[in-house]
Amino acid sequence: MCLESLTHLLAVKNNIMQNYQHFVGIDVSKDTLDYAVVCDGIQAFYLQTENTIIGIKTFIKALKKIGVLNFKDVVFCMEHTGIYCHHLVSYLTSSQYDLWLESPVQIKKSLGIQRGKNDKVDAKRIAMYAFKNRDAVSLWQPPRKEILKLKHLSSVRNRIIKTIGILSKIFIEKSFYDTELIQMTKTNTRASLKALKEDLERTNNAINEIIKNDEQLNHLFNLVSSVDGIGAVSATQIIIATNEFKTITTGKKFACYCGVVPFEHQSGSSVRGKSRVSKMANMNLKKCLHMAALSAMHYSVEMQDFFNRKVAEGKNKMSVINAVRNKLILRVFACVRDNRPYSKDYVYLAR
């Protein structure tokens, strides 16, 4: 790294540390929000409100009463808890306050040994986490409305597919049931299955319409789906998970996020475990990539040859499939980085 780049990074780091004077940790639950304000490593304020817009405004007013007037000095840190943090995230982003959404596992493992927990204590721990890691603040980038719609529809789609699978399972295992029971089940679930399949088709059409009508999404979708094996569902999930490649910008980080990167398990001369992938991953995405890898190996001669060659060398089949998943990820990110569709005949020219 050149001296100018290092100087710039240090300047940014010092600027972050100087800007934030108040670190607000928020513990989010379905009904309540617990706020703890830390200043100079000491808890200065605590308040609990309802998990509503009115409750959030009550806390902001309370902050102003204790002397916090410049909100550029404040960073709000909270765990990503799905729909329960919707009101809070919407209000803070619309007010242009600095928001730090962090993984619950990251916060928990960084705190060391902890005894006992309640909402008040958790809020303080989150605030202390933000204070101690103030030189590594990662402000949240809110996704566009189109991405939020896609995410919601994808969630609905998964629920519909899961419900169809539950209702259809008896027909898959029909050899274990009497014919009369199977026929009775068909009669009682026919209408539900038909309606669910129609809902699934409508949901898929709605997802396709959003992508088709948005120029940026349509362009990204075409780039991602140009890679052999990456279908419409996988391409959509990748775009959602990366926030249009704004939050996760490199293939290596995304591969780690999806749980397809093997990590060493060694210590000294006594512990010599095999390299394994981590279970701390987005398992839905990993499942999508697994199906994409199987599809790529079925339709791509190159991937078939790669799989057969590695298996012939004695590699474990699942390890080779994992390598194929990694290849697909790196190809997707290369296409987005270079802003070009995937080409089998592409020749890399060193610059």
Let me know the CATH homologous superfamily of the largest domain: ATPase, nucleotide binding domain
Give the number of DSSP strands.
7
* Major sheet details: 5 strands, mixed
Whole-angstrom Rg: 25 Å
Task: Indicate the low-confidence ranges by residue numbers.
Answer: 1-18
| Secondary structure tally, helices | 13
What CATH architecture label of the largest domain applies? 2-Layer Sandwich
Q: Percent range for helical residues?
A: 55-70%
Distance between the termini: 19 Å
Strand order of the largest sheet: 3-2-1-4-5
- Going by helix content, strand content and strand pairing, the class is alpha/beta
Task: Describe the fold and architecture.
The protein has helices spanning 3-19, 53-65, 86-94, 104-110, 119-132, 145-172, 179-213, 215-225, 232-241, 251-258, 283-299, 301-312, 317-338; strands at residues 22-28, 32-39, 42-50, 74-79, 98-102, 262-267, 271-277. The strands form two sheets. It has a five-stranded mixed sheet. Mean pLDDT is 87; it is low at 1-18. The protein folds into three domains: 15-136, ATPase, nucleotide binding domain (Nucleotidyltransferase, domain 5); 153-209, no CATH class; 234-338, no CATH class. It is globular, with a radius of gyration of 25 Å. β1 (22-28) and β2 form a beta hairpin. The chain is an alpha/beta fold and 351 residues long.
